[in-house]
Structures are given as C-alpha cells and as structure tokens.
Design a protein that fits this description.
Structural class: mainly alpha
Order of helices and strands: HHHHHHH
Largest sheet: none
Shape: globular
Number of strands: 0
Strand content: under 5%
Distance between the termini: 19 Å
Helix content: over 70%
Number of helices: 7
C-alpha cells in the first residue's frame, strides 16, 4: 500500500468528521445515500446487499439501516487508521477483502462504490466539498479498494 500525503489524509478525515457532526443519524443518512447511488450506477450490486431487483433503499427501513450502518462503519473504521503506519490498515483491508469475496462481491463493483461514496459526501457537504476534497477522496478510495481487491483475488 502506497503512502498517502498528510494533506490528502487530512482532507479526507476532515470531510468525514464534518459529515458525522452534521447529523445524529449519520450512518443511516449517508449509508442510504451511498446505497441508492450504488444501485443506480450498478443494479447488480443490489443482490450483494439482499435487495430485490426493484427494491430501493429507504432510510429508516430495517434492511436498509443494517446495510447502511455496515458500509459507513467499515469506512469509519478504516479512515480512523489512516496515517504513516500502513501495516495495520493493510491487515484490516485484507480481512475486508476476504469477507467481500465470501459475500460474492465482484471486484468490478468497487469503482461504483467509490463513485457512490463521493456523490454522497458531495451531497452532504455541498459547496464545502471542493475539487481538492474530491481528488483526495478518489486517491484514498483507490488505494483502499486496491488493497481489498488484492485480498479478494488472492488464494
């Protein structure tokens, strides 16, 4: 895993923490936005989350909430570990990759998740989400997802 710059990590964690502070229902709101956009971009991802072809994520719905919280919690955990020591992050991402493989996630879904994540963050932050923030998120997400995909393809 390549080392990411201080400013990149700082912008990503700052954005994340700002989104968290803006709502007590952060996981439900952001997670539901991510799932909606993900399903719009790649409808095949619905099956991975146990949604029917025509079923939309609904904020507050039990099934949606479970998956929304899982997605957001996974990002939250990994983002808290970002820093100069990448060994622990790599170890966690390897475990995440193995779980994704067990769930039948296709590596081809990861770019869609990245797009959905950045879309949701932009929606939450509005004009405060600058091109620098977007670039930082793209870099960090690319690095994290690459490690997950490597673990999925191993063995």
């Amino acid at each position: 895993m390549k080392e990411m710059g201080y400013n990149t990590i700082s912008r990503v964690t700052e954005t994340w923490e700002t989104c968290k502070r803006r709502s007590p229902k952060f996981e439900d709101e952001l997670g539901t936005m991510i799932l909606k956009k993900l399903f719009e971009l790649q409808p095949k991802t619905r099956a991975v989350f146990g949604f029917a072809k025509d079923q939309e994520p609904v904020e507050g719905d039990k099934n949606t909430s479970v998956h929304a919280h899982t997605v957001v919690s996974m990002f939250d955990s990994v983002l808290q570990m970002l820093g100069p020591d990448t060994d622990l992050v790599q170890e966690v991402l390897q475990q995440v990759g193995k779980r994704h493989k067990d769930f039948g996630v296709s590596p081809s879904y990861f770019p869609y998740m990245g797009q959905a994540l950045i879309f949701a963050l932009k929606e939450r932050m509005q004009d405060a989400f600058t091109n620098d923030h977007k670039d930082s998120w793209e870099e960090v997400y690319e690095e994290l997802s690459s490690e997950i995909i490597k673990a999925m393809l191993a063995d």
